[in-house]
Amino acid sequence: MLAGRVLPLSEEPSVQSSSWSLKPARDLLPKQFQAWQELLENRTGMVLDERRRTFLLTQLNARMRELGLDDYDAYLARVGDGPQGAVEWARLLDRLTVQETRFFRHPASFDFLSEYLQGRLAQGLAKPLQLWSVGCASGDEMYSLAICAAQALQAATLDFSHFGVTGTDISAQALKLASSGEYPAARLNNVPEQVREQYFSAVDGGRYAVKEALRSRCCNIRLNVLELNKAPLHNMDVIFCQNLLIYFRRWRRRDILNRLIERLAPGGIMVIGVGEVTGWQHPDAVPVADDRVLAFMRRKVA
Ligand SMILES: C[S@@+](CC[C@H](N)C(=O)[O-])C[C@H]1O[C@@H](n2cnc3c(N)ncnc32)[C@H](O)[C@@H]1O
């Protein structure tokens, strides 16, 4: 139902004359750097430490150049200025977020998922499976989840359409890519040949598109993980949250996991990136005893 829907953003302003690109980027004053750090962390949870100062400078300058701006403080004021500022903030965010991802990025997590689904489906299926990719970037993880669910249903000789995957992310640009379901051939390098043939079609320009039967089981929603109270997602069977929490402070990682576990159905699983969280405990979360992965099952009702 939500497939292909992402928030509209205003038109890209025209790129300014080349004289801008010749100017070296001015460094940020300590208090300016701190102001940008605070803005980013307050709004997204991401901690931008000193090692990423050059990254921030590069991204700010690239965007300011497009807008014809030369003053960090003026640009900071602009992103904080009402609805127009919110649109500009969304644009900048596309540049400041790390959107690196891959299909089946952590193979052991997907092997674990397939085994879990196989076990679940052996007991029958009371309702369609619901899976969630939190911080889905360009959708590689979302479609990897969809492929695992489709394969598990097929192996259990159940209806292919009995699942849905939701991919959420803060970046509108990432969601647009995810919704398109189109990828350059090189992105499918670690997708087994047989899986590629079954779930992707070759399209123009050496690209591959996720087949409609799979794509139509997936939808995207723009969602800030700091605002999980707004997430219209409950009773999930599977939540994947990988390579997102690493950018956050420890207390915030635990806080987010506390919110996510509430969104699982009893017996559902939450799979985190290995090493992304240590020592997290929750009365409803049962750690999964499998060294290959970091996963928790929501306690079943007694
Ligand atoms: C490195 S990618 C991880 C993609 C995928 N989960 C994986 O493991 O390959 C991190 C994603 O988290 C998103 N992100 C960062 N902060 C976020 C926030 N506060 N709420 C939702 N998504 C966020 C970024 O836009 C980016 O697409």
Summarize the topology.
Layout lengths: L18 H4 L7 H15 L8 H15 L4 H8 L2 H15 L10 H16 L6 E6 L5 H16 L7 E7 L2 H9 L1 E3 L8 H7 E4 L3 E4 L1 H4 L2 E5 L13 E6 L8 H13 L1 E9 L12 E3 L6 E5 L4
Parallel strand pairs: 1-2, 1-7, 2-6, 7-8
Antiparallel strand pairs: 3-5, 4-5, 8-10, 9-10
Helix pairs in contact: 6-7
S-adenosylmethionine binds next to loops.
β content, as a range? 15-25%
State the distance separating the first and last CA atoms: 35 Å
Enumerate the strands of the largest sheet in spatial order, edge to edge or round the barrel.
6-2-1-7-8-10-9
Can you identify the CATH superfamily of the largest domain? Vaccinia Virus protein VP39
Bound molecules: S-adenosylmethionine
CATH architecture of the largest domain: 3-Layer(aba) Sandwich
Approximate shape: globular
In round numbers, the mean pLDDT is 91
Rg, Cα atoms, Å: 21 Å
Give me the CATH fold name of the largest domain: Rossmann fold
Based on DSSP secondary structure assignment, what is the total number of beta strands?
10
Structural class designation: alpha/beta
H/E element order: HHHHHHEHEHEHEEHEEHEEE
Please outline the major beta sheet: 7 strands, mixed
